[in-house]
Each structure stands twice: as C-alpha cells, then as structure tokens.
Amino acid sequence: MIKVEVSVIIHRPLTEVFAILSNVENNMRWRTGMIAVEKISTGPIGVGTTYRMINSIFGRRIDGEAVVSEYELNQKYATVNKSGLPIETKRTFEPVNGGTKVTFAVKTELRGFFNFAKPVLERIGKRRLESDAAKAKALIEAGIL
Questions:
Q1: Strands laid side by side in the 87-96 sheet
Q2: What is the pLDDT of residues 97-115, one digit of tens each?
C-alpha cells in the first residue's frame, strides 16, 4: 500500500476553494496525467456522484470510474475508483488566516511487479502530488480556476 499526503495553503476563501476542488471536472486543468473526465451521474455533487475518467500513468492509458465516497460541504471530499486502478483520494479543507489549508491524500494498493517498486513509486507519487497541489494553488489564486 502506498499512502501520500501533501498540504498547501491557498489564499482564497474556503467556500471558493472547496467548490473548485470538489468538482472532479476541474481536475483536467491542474492534475498531471488526467486526459478526460465526465460526470455520469445526475444531481448535485455528493456521496454517490460518479465520474468516468481517462488517465495516463507512466505513458499507459487507464480508463476507469470513480465514485464520491465522502462529502462534507466545505470540509472534506473523497473518491474511490470503482474500476481501473485501485486508488482512493481525499481532500480536506480547513480555514486558516488568509485562506484555506487543503490536504491532498492518495492511497493505492500495489499489485504484482509494482509491489517491488514501492519505494520508488512512493517518491514519484509524492513529487507528483506536490506539483499538482502547487499548480492548483497557483491557478486558484490567479482566478483561473
């Protein structure tokens, strides 16, 4: 199992940051490797909302579906992949002086060959998550997202 966590302070109001980062369709603009995402369930975003996604990981196309597993307005948002790679993502949100602290967490179960590469994949995952969090921060603070 790989668990990676990164926190960042985004200098924008909590409600704005939560609205942007709890809409997976916005991930296309800041997440590395995301090729396409589409909300395939009806209704507002909440527990049970389902997305179809296409990602690229190590140059390999991965199709899958993810479902929102946790949703607390302005506090936390989590998804779990129903198909494709076994990945869980979670974002928690806290008001801080001058903005919002967002903690991005990713957890995945490794199988087969990838189990041998766990330490390397953990470092790569941490760097990628840090880079993605920094990009999301920059885009939100600039008003682009």
A1: 2-10, 99-108, 87-96, 76-81, 60-72, 50-57, 34-39
A2: 999 999 999 998 866 666 6
Checking if the pLDDT of 41 tops 90, the result is yes
State the residue range of the domain holding 50: 2-141
**What is residue 108's three-state secondary structure?**
strand
Q: Which two tokens stand for residue 7?
A: 């926190």
The CATH number of residue 42's host domain is 3.30.530.20
CA–CA–CA angle 125, 128, 133 (5° rounding): 120
Structurally, how many domains does the chain consist of?
1
Specify the pTM: 0.90
Q: Range with the lowest mean pLDDT among 36-40, 67-71, 104-108, 115-119? A: 115-119
Q: Which two tokens stand for residue 92?
A: 């928690």
